[in-house]
Amino acid sequence: MSDAVASAPLAADDAGLICGWRFFCETQQPAQAMTAQSAAAWLASSGKSASAGSDSGPMHAGGRRDFLWLHFNLANTQSLRWLQRHAALPPVFYAALREGLTSTRIERADDSLVAVLNDVNFEFNFDSADIATLWICLDEHLVITARTQPLRTVDALRAAVREGDSPASTAELLEHLMRTQADVLVKVVRETTVRVDDIEDAVLAQRYHHPRARLGSLRRLLVRLQRLLAPEPAALFRLLQQPPHWMGEDDRRGLAAASEEFSLMLRDMQTLQDRIKLLQEEVAAAVNEDNSNSLFVLTVVTVLALPINILAGLFGMNVGGIPLAEHPHGFWIVVSLVAGFTVVAAWLAFRKRRQPD
Fold it and tell me: Coiled coil: which residue ranges (predicted)?
């Protein structure tokens, strides 16, 4: 069941909680689905609740706790109230939600990480407006994600968890989220490439219909995606220079690898943008050439019609002394003069047209 479908029934019953999962760090037990009520109870018992005063939650023998991933729909007004009541999140996360920040960022807030990521909508239709924001807050034992519109990346990650994917830590879950985001965007780039290929084939076959509008729409989409996503690898790199104490070396390496994959995807996106730009220039050159040919034809027709118009005007004057008026072959003489002038004008026009550049 997709993010778009699941959000409707859960919004009323679970305080805007779209999905919740409990991951077991040390055992091979699959992830356990959580409701808002069970998540609140777990947070209270683990000391992660905003009203809890201790940190004595369930812990494995190896010293590592289980952790939760809770994904909320911010369109439900109960979501923010639930988070403030049950989750001890840093104030900077709530400030980002209130201000509606959409610029990409990943930063530390005490022992937590606060991230603002951008992704394509679940009902993505290759429009620059089909991009929405995902707000994330995580620490060693809790991952909170929140959005206002269904997103493809989170939906793909939910599907992977349902199929048995079980990250061993919150940082690994963030890594999986970034890799899934990169995979989704790679698919967008591939589908955009297919559309550009079709437009290019149509342009080469000279059977295109308004290709500039279609190319412009695709280029605007890529430009906006790159503008929103480009800061993400740099922000993650700065974070990895001073990671939280609970982030292990394996987690840092995994996030660095995910950042590198994301950077490669951004370079592919830039390459596609350059290709679209060149194709736009080629289409513009073809349109300019068509306009030039049309203007040339119009000019030639005007020049060829000039002699007959001039002579018709002269001989049509209602005055005396018109030459050849009484000549038995005057009509044919005038026709010959007009034809001669027309041939000379046509020769001059086409001779200049045939001159090499």
Answer: 262-289
CB 20 within 8 A of CB 39: yes
Query: Which tokens hold the place of 234?
Result: 């740099």
Decide: 109 and 157 in contact? Cβ < 8 Å.
no
Q: What is the pTM of this model?
A: 0.70
Using CA atoms, how far apart are residues 57 and 54, in angstroms rounded to an integer? 8
Q: Count the helix, strand and coil residues of the chain and give each as a percent rounded to the nearest 5.
A: 60, 15, 30
Alpha-carbon distance of 90 to 139, in angstroms, equals 10
Cβ within 8 Å of residue 146, ≥6 positions away: 71, 72, 73, 74, 79, 83, 97, 134, 135, 136
What would the pLDDT profile of 124-164 be if each residue is shown by its tens digit? 666 666 788 889 999 888 999 998 888 888 888 888 888 88
By C-alpha distance, which of 138, 132, 17 is closest to 80? 17
Q: Delineate the domains of the chain, giving CATH numbers in brackets.
A: 3-283 (3.30.460.20), 293-354 (1.20.58)
Please give the sequence-ordered ranges of beta strands (E in DSSP) within the chain, or none if there are none. Answer: 17-23, 32-33, 67-73, 105-109, 112-120, 131-138, 142-147
Among 22, 73, 61, which residue's Cα sits nearest to residue 43?
Answer: 22
Instruction: Write phi, then psi, for 60 (nearest 5 degrees).
Output: -80, 170
